[in-house]
Amino acid sequence: MSDFEHVFDKPPEGAADDWTIPQDWVAYTDVEHQTWDTLYARQMKVLPGRAAEVFLDGLKALDLSTGGIPDFAVMNPKLQALTGWTVVCVPGLVPDEVFFDHLANRRFPSGQFIRRPDQLDYLQEPDIFHDVFGHVPMLTNPDFAAYMEAYGKGGQRAASLGMLPNLARLYWYTVEFGLMKEDDELRIYGAGIVSSATESVFSLDDPSPNRLGFDLERVMKTLYRIDDFQQVYFVVDTIEQLKRETLQDFGPIYDRLAGLEPIPIETILATDVVYTDGTQAYASKGGRFAA
Ligand code: HBI
Ligand code: FE
How confident is the model over 237-252, as pLDDT tens digits? Predict the structure, then answer.
């Protein structure tokens, strides 16, 4: 984790006990606002017809297209009126228990900073473009809003039971990299995809990754990668399905999962619903590190 620039052990100077910091919107430079506009325009070229209707509707409801980095003082009242969620600023990745406490209280922690112009295509840390453009539109949907709150509440419990790696896989394969069915076609709703011009295309169009039906327990067993395009995507039928399955008691699931070996990332099981049996050609050739 040492190559992350925005990771701290305790709230840094100027941060509150809950790790929040002021957005200080007036301090963003012209270059930073332009970076937002460039990223926004790039996504709007690839997302129509690829992003789920629920994401695009949320984006419209928040009106984030007015130019430049959104001012949370303007955006939050719109979001709060829809689902009771607000967005707060944090300096970067925050400890798990801090993250969960915010989600459990319908506060989404967003990075305050935006990537540098030389990082437009790829950065591992969540910046304000990933966090706000990627995550916040889905929070306008009541089912997704309930799902995220449930995830936050479940986080503390999973941590105390030593099951956090399993719960984190659920977040990864839904909130960050989820696909859903819409009119019998696959669409994107995961924030890690919708905020990436290249993965927005790869996740739906490339023959390399597997695309499998969402199964809660299966997903919680599946390894993932954080450094490149995913090798497997999981497809939900509806966001309501996600909420319904997550509101059940995870206790019995954790009992069954305890001590089990994780499922390798490229494995397809006999029990999987298979949308794409991927070639894995992209990963086999070394992915973004290919010569
Ligand atoms: N902090 N700001 C921020 N954003 C995240 O997405 C985040 C985090 N801290 C911990 C975390 N995610 C995950 O490790 C948990 O979902 C498990
Ligand atoms: Fe994210």
Answer: 999 999 999 889 999 9
Could you state, in order of their start, the residue ranges of all structural domains in the chain?
25-284
Does the beta carbon of 154 lie inside 6 Å of ligand 1?
no
Ligand 1 centroid to residue 171 C-alpha, Å: 10
Q: What whole-number distance in Å separates Cα of residue 50 and Cα of residue 199? A: 11
Distance 130 CA to ligand 2 centre (A): 6
Q: Which pLDDT tens digit goes with each residue over 25-43?
A: 999 999 999 999 999 999 9
99 CA → ligand 1 middle, Å: 6
E strands, the chain, in order: 86-90, 107-111, 179-182, 185-188, 210-213, 232-236, 274-276
Q: Where are the alpha helices (DSSP H) in 85-208?
A: 96-104, 128, 142-160, 164-171, 191-194, 197-205
The predicted model scores a pTM of 0.95
Helix axes 30-46, 197-205, angle to 10 degrees: 20
The answer to whether the CB of 94 is under 6 A from ligand 1 is yes
Place of tokens 């695009």: 56
- CA dist., res. 223 & res. 73, Å (int): 38
- Rounded Cα–Cα distance for residues 99 and 108 (Å): 8
Task: Give the CATH number of domain 25-284.
Answer: 1.10.800.10
